[in-house]
């Protein structure tokens, strides 16, 4: 468990954050630039001291201003991957990788050089110097360097922000591999929804120095605070489902979500795998009767729990589809009136199989 | 030019010797002072800064004179040095070395301080998260990244040290083979009737030495920069 409750004041800025997150797992600090995400992980790392508060990781108190506990950053064993990689220019790739490894305690080493080289594809880079690496390669080396310091927690400060789309794709799969193959808890800072979708198991929404809400992505994605951060185009529920059946020939899969099952495009998956699906509010269709004669293959029954004003003349309808899962659908005010939509009403949510495609991500196996 | 007289050889050897010794003894304190000036916030920093730079703005003869009054055998410090270490600084090679070191100290400190100030503090923070304590960080990150500045400081101080005159002659006097370095020998030659030829040879020797130093400094700087990947 990661527990923190800290206050940090500057002129014109105040951070007041409380967070509890399960470990291991990947926590995303999600919010717009300047909301205090980096400040918060700097406090976690020990590079910055809070004015007041407490930081506890897996039962070890790292900071407690009341009891004057301040474990210095160099003894926290918290790895940190900076936005700008910060490789040491006077050392080669191998020298950088070894830097943290040499300083890690001998006992309890869980990850070795060979493993890191294989996991991050660093073998071909070993003979190079930092200035000879691309942005994506630099981040991978920085990641490896942090891992080899045998961290109890890994912090990532927008590790992909300085990279263009192609370079991001050079690093993201490695981060996913890390999450799925190692049991090192991670906290990463991001203002990009797609990174959060692909990596996070737990999300904390931040705004103006405060954590507005935290929880699983499926819980948070339907909340108003989340909508404000991602913007109107990306509003929609994110659901973690389990693949029940695979149609390899057509690249389709059945995914159990809530009470229903969605038949969606999902190449490269297998039965039993966990899939994360983003259902954009603008892609969903609502029907007051069981639909017939439509090309849409998916109809999930649910109950309206909330109607709220959306941008323009639109209304956001929140529908509980069972098993604790909710989706959001954007409909016009006219349609709302014509269908007589109101809270408590039972209806059917229609999802085009293809509209969920491209937003299906492996959410990683749950770890014990 | 190629065949130097014994007196000229002495002057050349002494100049190199004094300059070399002076940079060797000033390097550790220069790194320390540069670090304090670049990094620390204590109230005396301004005073320290002024003190270190004083030799740059004082007449060299005044520096030599101040050294003489504070260190000669009649002064308390001079007597203490003599009693405990058997060392008398005035009129000795070590005296010339000390005068040279004091004069070139600000040059060395400046170069190292500039390099220290340009070290990315973020790299030290990164080293911290990787488990490096303060001393470890200084030795493994800060110092290597300051290396170009340290080398530049060493070379500047060495080159300037070859030509120190006023402070040396005032504090250590002009003793052949002991404190008579190139510039002092040059000065002596000018003073002597018929010494013009020797003065010219010594001047040419000084120029050659200077050019050689500059070329070596440039080559070294390139190597270091390549090593740091810049």
Key traits:
heterodimer; A: 368 residues; alpha+beta; Rossmann fold; OB fold (Dihydrolipoamide Acetyltransferase, E2P); six-stranded mixed sheet; five-stranded antiparallel sheet; 9 helices; 21 strands; globular; disordered C terminus; B: 230 residues; mainly alpha; MetI-like fold; 0% strand
Task: Describe the structure concisely.
Chain A has 368 residues and is an alpha+beta fold. Chain A contains 9 helices and 21 strands. The two termini of chain A are 13 Å apart.
Descriptive notes:
The complex is a heterodimer of chains A (368) and B (230). Chain A has helices spanning 37-45, 93-103, 113-120, 135-148, 165-181, 193-199, 217-220, 224-230, 333-339; strands spanning 2-10, 13-21, 26-30, 52-57, 60-64, 69-70, 78-81, 153-157, 186-190, 202-207, 210-215, 236-247, 252-257, 260-265, 274-280, 285-287, 298-309, 314-320, 326-332, 346-351, 360-362. Chain A has 368 residues and is α+β, with helices and mostly antiparallel strands. Chain A folds into two domains: 2-215, Rossmann fold, CATH 3.40.50.300; 236-362, RNA polymerase II/Efflux pump adaptor protein, barrel-sandwich hybrid domain (OB fold (Dihydrolipoamide Acetyltransferase, E2P)). Chain B has 230 residues and is mainly α. Chain B has one domain: MetI-like fold (Orthogonal Bundle), CATH 1.10.3720. In chain B, 78% of the residues lie in helices and 0% in strands. Chain B is globular. Chains A and B meet through strand 7 and helix 2 of A and helix 6 and helix 7 of B.
Layout of helices and strands, plus pairs?
The complex is a heterodimer of chains A (368) and B (230).
Chain A: E1 2-10, E2 13-21, E3 26-30, H1 37-45, E4 52-57, E5 60-64, E6 69-70, E7 78-81, H2 93-103, H3 113-120, H4 135-148, E8 153-157, H5 165-181, E9 186-190, H6 193-199, E10 202-207, E11 210-215, H7 217-220, H8 224-230, E12 236-247, E13 252-257, E14 260-265, E15 274-280, E16 285-287, E17 298-309, E18 314-320, E19 326-332, H9 333-339, E20 346-351, E21 360-362
Parallel strand pairs in A: 3-9, 3-10, 7-8, 8-9
Antiparallel strand pairs in A: 1-2, 1-4, 4-5, 5-6, 10-11, 12-13, 12-15, 13-14, 15-21, 16-20, 17-18, 17-20, 18-19
Chain B: H1 6-39, H2 45-57, H3 60-71, H4 76-85, H5 93-117, H6 121-129, H7 134-162, H8 166-171, H9 182-191, H10 196-227
């Amino acid at each position: 468990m990661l527990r923190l409750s800290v206050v940090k004041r500057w002129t014109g800025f105040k951070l007041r954050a409380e967070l509890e997150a399960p470990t291991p797992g990947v926590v995303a600090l999600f919010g717009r630039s300047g909301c205090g995400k980096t400040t918060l992980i700097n406090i976690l790392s020990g590079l910055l001291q809070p004015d007041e508060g407490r930081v506890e990781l897996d039962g070890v108190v790292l900071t407690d201003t009341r009891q004057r506990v301040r474990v210095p950053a160099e003894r926290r064993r918290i790895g940190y991957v900076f936005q700008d990689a910060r490789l040491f220019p006077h050392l080669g790739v191998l020298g950088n990788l070894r830097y943290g490894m040499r300083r890690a305690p001998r006992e309890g080493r869980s990850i070795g050089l060979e493993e890191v080289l294989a996991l991050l594809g660093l073998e071909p880079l070993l003979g190079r110097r930092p200035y000879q690496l691309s942005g994506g390669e630099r981040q991978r080396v920085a990641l490896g360097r942090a891992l080899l310091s045998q961290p109890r927690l890994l912090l990532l400060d927008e590790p992909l922000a300085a990279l263009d789309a192609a370079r991001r794709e050079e690093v993201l799969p490695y981060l996913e591999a890390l999450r799925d193959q190692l049991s090192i808890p991670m906290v990463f800072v991001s203002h990009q929804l797609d990174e959060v979708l692909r990596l996070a198991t737990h999300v904390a929404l931040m705004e103006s120095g405060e954590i507005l809400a935290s929880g699983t992505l499926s819980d948070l994605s339907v909340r108003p605070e989340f909508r404000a951060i991602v913007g109107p185009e990306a509003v929609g529920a994110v659901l973690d489902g389990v693949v029940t059946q695979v149609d390899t020939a057509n690249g389709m899969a059945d995914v159990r979500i809530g009470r229903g099952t969605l038949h969606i495009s999902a190449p490269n998956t297998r039965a039993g795998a966990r899939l994360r699906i983003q259902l954009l509010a603008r892609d969903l269709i609502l029907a007051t009767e069981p639909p017939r004669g439509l090309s849409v293959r998916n109809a999930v029954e649910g109950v309206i729990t909330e109607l709220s004003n959306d941008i323009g003349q639109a209304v956001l309808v929140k529908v509980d589809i069972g098993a604790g899962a909710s989706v959001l659908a954007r409909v016009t005010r006219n349609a709302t009136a014509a269908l007589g939509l109101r809270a408590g009403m039972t209806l059917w949510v229609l999802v085009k199989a293809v509209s969920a495609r491209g937003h299906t991500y492996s959410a990683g196996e749950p770890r014990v | 030019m190629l065949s130097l007289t014994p007196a000229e050889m002495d002057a050349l050897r002494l100049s190199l010797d004094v300059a070399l010794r002076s940079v060797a003894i000033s390097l550790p304190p220069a790194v320390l002072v540069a670090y304090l000036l670049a990094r620390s916030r204590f109230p005396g920093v301004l005073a320290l800064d002024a003190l270190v730079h004083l030799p740059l703005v004082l007449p060299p003869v005044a520096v030599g004179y101040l050294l003489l009054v504070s260190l000669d055998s009649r002064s308390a410090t001079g007597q203490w040095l003599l009693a405990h270490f058997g060392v008398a600084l005035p009129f000795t090679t070590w005296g010339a070395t000390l005068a040279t070191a004091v004069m070139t100290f600000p040059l060395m400190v400046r170069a190292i301080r500039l390099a220290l100030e340009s070290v990315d503090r973020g790299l030290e923070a990164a080293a911290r998260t990787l488990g490096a304590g303060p001393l470890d960080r200084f030795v493994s990150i800060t110092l290597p990244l300051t290396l170009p500045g340290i080398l530049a400081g060493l070379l500047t101080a060495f080159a300037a040290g070859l030509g120190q005159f006023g402070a040396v002659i005032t504090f250590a006097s002009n003793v052949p083979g002991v404190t008579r370095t190139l510039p002092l020998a040059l000065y002596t030659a000018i003073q002597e009737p018929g010494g013009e030829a020797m003065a010219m040879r010594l001047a040419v020797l000084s120029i050659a030495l200077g050019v050689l130093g500059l070329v070596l400094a440039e080559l070294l700087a390139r190597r270091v920069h390549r090593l740091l990947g810049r």
